[in-house]
Amino acid sequence: MTLETSVPDGPIASTQGQDAASDPREAIRRTVRARLRGIGRPDSRFVYDFSNFIADYPGSERIPETLRSLPFWKGSGPVFITPDNCLESLRSELVGERRPLLQTIAVAMGFHYFAPGSVQPGLERFAGTLDGAMILAQQVDLDFVRNLGPLDFVVTGACAVNRSGIRFGKGHGFFDMEWGILRELGAVSDETPVIACVHDCQVVDTEFPVSEHDTIVDWIVTPTETIEVTERLRKPAGIHWDRVTPALMEEIAPLGELKRAHDSSAS
């Protein structure tokens, strides 16, 4: 199978000027965004500013079919899917299959949930969009998420991911925050499969140290390749509260809710 659009070959270098020396991940982000320029689909809000969204790409429509063939798919339990553009078809398929679907539209808004059968037939595609989720999904609190029980698996997009399973997004830490909240609620664990769906040009050969807040992925799915990560690095055990400012707790409603519950149980 060949790529549907040609992209530069070879590993992404992390030596692009002074910024790269101090922040090699930002250098990789810049290079991946340049590769995506000829591939990634624009967003109506941000056009081609890939620093503000995780882009859709040719071949993303095959994600549901690929995931169905992998061992973690079996079952009927709830799953969590991030709001990335490349996962729109997956969210639509899950709604259509009546799989309990937990997602965010923006982490500051908290969690939204599609109960099995809650969407009228014919509206599944719209439900997979962020506008559709705002209208059709149920906004739920953290107690609801906790009571859902363990998630069967988690799927996210990424700006870039390497073959050791270290992924990073736009640089805001939203997915790591979502994972941390889910971990604090007991919805995920080290054993929960995490899948990153990206274009081939977003898989990089560069190795870099893993930080304590990096959410490691177990599988990488591209339009031409399915990669099982054999290194089993530990996933974050929860929120690193020493890094959470009062301003962030005010901005991210679930974080403030969780911190109040955390402080209450500790007292």
In short:
By secondary structure, this protein is of the alpha/beta class. The protein has 10 helices and 11 strands. The protein is globular, with a radius of gyration of 18 Å.
Walkthrough of the structure:
The chain has 267 residues and is of the alpha/beta class. The protein has one domain: NagB/RpiA/CoA transferase-like (Rossmann fold, 3-Layer(aba) Sandwich). The strands form two sheets. It has an eight-stranded mixed β-sheet. A three-stranded mixed β-sheet has the order 7-6-9, with helices on one face. The chain is globular. The termini are far apart. The N terminus is likely disordered.
How large is the radius of gyration? Answer: 18 Å
CATH architecture annotation name: 3-Layer(aba) Sandwich
> What's the story with the biggest beta sheet?
8 strands, mixed
User: What level of helicity do the residues show?
Assistant: 25-40%
Strand content: 5-15%
CATH domain class? Alpha Beta
- Count of discrete domains: 1
Number of helices: 10
- Distance from N terminus to C terminus (CA atoms, Å) equals 58 Å
The total beta strand count reads 11
Query: Strand-and-helix sequence, N→C?
Result: HHHEHEEHHEHEEEHEEEEHH
Q: What spatial order of strands do you see in the largest sheet? A: 4-3-2-1-5-8-10-11
Average pLDDT taken over every residue? 86
